[in-house]
Design brief:
It contains five helices and 38 strands. By secondary structure, it is mainly β. The chain folds into three domains: 103-256, Pectate Lyase C-like, CATH 2.160.20; 275-439, no CATH class; 442-551, Immunoglobulin-like (Sandwich), CATH 2.60.40. It is elongated. It starts with 11 loop residues before the first strand and ends with a strand.
Length: 552
């Protein structure tokens, strides 16, 4: 029987990453054993090849995106967009690089259907972008991590390291929801987000007390989320711990809690708790355009944190809006409590107790120096009983060098209207050590022979109140414009009023001022100061515009 021998056909082969790819002959095949890629030689220019070299033959191991290197930005118009130095030399990039500019959370196996536990995948994405040992200190690696709209179920805290830039599709669109961990026999309280030190590694996180100066959480952006707890969570914690964070921004985040009216004060049901360790305090951060809804306390801190701005945010349905220094120990990282907060252009509504309270610091070495400015306080500090039942001041400053500038208090307009003027007590808008400058108010001056109440202020001893006013009378023989200042000096025993003014016209308008004090809340002692006016019959009616400043 004849023996038939078939020759084995061999092609060039080798390890591309070690020896490199040799120049293949025309139509010669070359196989890269290590990368599992296949190449064929172009041939020479004399044969008609456009260029000498090798051409990759597509296989399942080929990254097609690396081959697509013709992407250039076109814009969405017919106009020519010049991307390079010269109009005929546009900048071209691979599709791979273009798609990696913003990283989707879905690229790490996150589902976002509200049923799948995404904890591990979410943390893996953050760790690989911001904590990967190979490039964690490389600025180029700090890409934006995009959380598309969806409900992301988690059962453990998501740790956020320095330089993290995590962006959702907006509050009520991208929702991070904490569920109980079914593997825990005893449920533990866990925040949804917590900042950690930059010396963390994937799976091992340097938290609060162990954070070091050179690796503190900084330059973080958290934007476009809702953070909430599933009702099945029975042991709650603040929705987020801002730990030792600096030079960072929290924006367009809804902190949605489980607080109910009968729950009262519970610091564990805070929306955001701000913490610091000694010199590694949380400082120079901005919280803006956020919503704090159904939290016992919206923003809470007992630590020596400082220079925090809270602006353009909404505090709705809770016990206290912002609570600073409540139980600061007076030692260590709580020696003086929070300092230098700017609370500006926020809205507070349906807050049972204080809108803002700053507790008395245990140390008087430095002033605390908080400012509220341009905020709107609606149904606040009425214990859900409405404006006719004020319970406490809206803002309370127990620390020094604080001020309220141009804040609006719905309470003031309600209790100074004609039906409530002499029946509803005036609990202070702002109480404690402070300077307050109110917004402008208006009232009508009728003709009255006897001193008549026109507005009221709270009675608290050792206070000086300045009322800057403008009276305008027209259409009578006593036409006048009168501008002046009333000074009310209030102490434990008496109230003095003085009037300094100038006017135009033939008369000063004939307005006479006086004060009175009364008890309108049926408790011991008087709590309301009435400013009264007398405008005799025949003197003409007019309008009053005024603002009030306090030193207390």
């Amino acid at each position: 029987m004849a023996v038939v021998q078939i020759s084995k056909i061999q092609h060039r082969r080798g390890k591309e990453t070690i020896t490199g790819l040799p120049q293949l002959a025309s139509a010669e095949l070359g196989w890269a054993v290590d990368t599992q890629k296949l190449y064929i030689g172009n041939g020479s220019v004399n044969e008609g090849a456009p260029a000498v070299g090798n051409t990759e033959i597509l296989t399942e191991q080929t990254n097609i995106f690396d081959l697509l290197d013709q992407y250039e930005f076109k814009g969405n118009t017919d106009a020519t967009v010049q991307t390079g130095e010269f109009a005929n030399d546009p900048i071209k990039r691979t599709i791979q690089k273009r798609l990696d500019d913003i990283v989707s959370i879905k690229s790490f196996g996150v589902v976002g259907d509200g049923a799948t536990d995404d904890t591990a995948a979410l943390q893996r994405a953050i760790d690989q972008i911001y904590l990967n040992s190979g490039d964690k200190f490389d600025a180029v690696s700090r890409r934006t991590l995009k959380f598309e709209a969806g409900v992301y179920k988690i059962t453990d805290t998501i740790r956020i390291p320095p330089y993290a830039n995590i962006v959702g599709d907006g509050a009520d669109a991208t929702i991070i929801r904490m569920f109980p961990d079914a593997t825990e026999l005893t449920p533990t309280a866990k925040p949804i987000f917590q900042t950690v030190g930059g010396n963390s590694t994937p799976g091992t996180y340097v938290e609060f007390a162990s954070i070091q100066n050179l690796t503190r959480p900084k330059n973080i952006t958290i934007k476009g989320f809702t953070l909430d707890m599933d009702p099945s969570v029975t042991t709650v914690a603040p929705l987020m711990y801002m730990d030792c964070m600096t030079e960072s921004v929290i924006e367009d985040v809804k902190f949605y809690g489980q607080w109910k009216t009968l729950d009262g004060l519970d610091v564990n049901q805070a929306g955001l708790e701000i913490r610091g360790i000694g010199a590694l305090t949380s400082e120079n951060n901005v919280i803006k355009n956020c919503e704090f809804n159904k939290n016992s306390i919206g923003v809470y801190s007992i630590y020596d944190v400082k220079n925090i701005t809270i602006a353009q945010s909404y505090f709705y349905f809770g016990h206290i809006g912002i609570d600073l220094g409540r139980t600061s120990s007076g030692t260590g990282s709580q020696s003086q409590g929070p300092k230098n907060f700017i609370i500006a252009h926020n809205r507070f509504d349906k807050i049972d107790d204080f809108g803002v309270i700053v507790h008395k610091p245990n140390s008087s070495v430095d002033p605390n120096g908080h400012t509220t400015m341009g905020n709107v306080f609606l149904d606040v500090s009425n214990n859900s009983n409405g404006q006719n039942s004020p319970q406490e001041s809206v803002i309370k400053f127990e620390a020094t060098q604080c001020e309220s500038i141009g804040d609006f208090f719905e309470r003031e307009s309600q209790i100074n209207n004609s039906s409530n003027l002499t029946s509803v007590p005036f609990k202070p808008n702002v109480d404690g050590y402070h300077f307050t400058h109110s917004r402008i108010n208006t009232a009508e001056l009728t003709e009255v022979d006897a001193p008549t109440e026109i507005f009221k202020i709270p009675f608290t001893k050792d206070k000086i109140a300045y009322v800057d006013y403008l009276i305008v009378k027209t259409g009578t023989s006593t036409d006048t414009t009168r501008q002046g200042r009333l000074t009310l000096t209030i102490n434990a025993s008496n109230i003095n009023i003085t009037d300094s003014y100038s006017h135009t016209g033939s008369s000063d308008g004939g307005i006479e001022w006086s004060v009175g004090i009364d008890d309108l809340d049926s408790t011991s002692g008087s709590e309301t100061v009435f400013v009264k006016y007398r405008n005799p019959i025949g003197n003409g009616v007019g309008s009053l515009t005024y603002s009030i400043s306090y030193f207390a």
